[in-house]
Design a protein that fits this description.
single chain; 9-stranded mixed β-sheet; 9 strands; about 20% strand; disordered C terminus
Length: about 250
Amino acid sequence: MSDVNRIKAEAIKKIFSVFGQFITLPLAGKVTELRPVLELIRKDRVPASPDHIGRMLPDLLVIMMNPGSSRPLDRHYRSQTVAKARDIDPLGQLTPTRPDNTQYQIMRILLARDLGHARVLNLSDLRETKSPVFIQRFQSLEGHHPEGSAHSLFSPLRTEERRIRMGGDASIPLLVGWGRHPGLLPLARQCLATLVTNRIVGLEIPGYPGLYAHPSPMMQKAKEAWVNAVLQRLPHAVASRTADPLETIHSK
């Protein structure tokens, strides 16, 4: 476990590709930027058409808070505009996406368990970098507008889309880590009500049922502690599908 914590982002980027789906949806009379899904996948598992990744069953499903600073690598990329939440295509266009420190934490988990593909979902798809502002935004949407909850994949308004994104394989672990802010509890409870609890892997915050430690806390030691604790809870892969990625990194 200590080896995986020492792997730098530059080395991880040589092994994994990152693709996201970006959507523009009118909510409460305003243009709202969403990122419904992020796919973290080994480069040797990317299909000829990356858009087909959405049809693949991932090795790991991850649920976090919101997309944060996630953005397409291509600055000129234009998000698909949809009129209603039900028009979001769960198998729609994916584009290469800039990963952040949080996603590198998930990729370290994949490396340690010799897994090749994680699908990252969120309590909310609102693209907002500042957590307090994000919480204010979703509370305003849900408090004042009939379809305001459509920012979340776990809203009843997006049930069919969620079913497709999460797949039908009950053996896929669910790694959850959306943080400790009490303002997230309504979204967290809504999400947890849709999940099979015995599939959940995460570090629940003592005294705050429904809140799970974020993968990328500020301090490096805390980051490493999160990885180590998750690996203690996450089952080993049944069989290795590729050469040992840690061995590949350290041999270079």
